[in-house]
Write a structure and sequence with these properties.
Number of domains: 1
CATH topology: Endonuclease I-creI
CATH superfamily: Homing endonucleases
Helix content: 25-40%
CATH architecture: Roll
Distance between the termini: 48 Å
Order of helices and strands: HHEEHEEHH
């Protein structure tokens, strides 16, 4: 709000930071639309060989990834608190890695039961941009995996 008030000479009052549960409101789709990723990983069968000690089975897996800079460029505020809350809600780990001199916070969800939570959430609170189509394709693969 400070940015809009200053840039456009507005007088919009700030509201308190929301503390409700992630799955009880619809702010997360916008966050995901900007920085989320719905991925499908496909591993083809590879037999044992002289360079490979074990064979590799065919495998298809899903992953939801959400990355954020540790420090937001525009506000200079840490994103750690919000990313910790998201990772706690999604019951997954929050990792930190370096990329081009930036610290990145990353959430990766791969467990099928946690993927089910994400699918239920985005069907209740849909994405409004181009990622909606990516999500629906991802959901289709989820149902294919579940039905074997």
């Amino acid at each position: 709000m400070n940015f809009f008030n200053k840039k456009y000479n507005f007088i919009i009052p700030k509201s308190n930071l929301g503390i409700s549960d992630l799955f009880s409101n619809s702010w997360f789709p916008g966050f995901t639309e900007a920085d989320g990723h719905f991925g499908v990983k496909i591993v083809d069968y590879k037999p044992k060989s002289c360079t490979r000690k074990r064979s590799v089975s065919d495998n298809i897996s899903l992953r939801f990834i959400l990355d954020q800079r540790f420090i937001d460029k525009k506000t200079s505020l840490s994103m750690l608190n919000i990313m910790e809350k998201i990772s706690q809600t999604l019951l997954c780990n929050l990792t930190v890695y370096e990329s081009k001199n930036n610290k990145i916070l990353s959430i990766k969800v791969v467990a099928i039961d946690k993927i089910k939570l994400i699918i239920s959430y985005f069907n209740k609170y849909p994405l409004l941009g181009i990622k909606w189509k990516d999500f629906k394709d991802w959901e289709t693969v989820y149902h294919m995996i579940i039905s074997k």
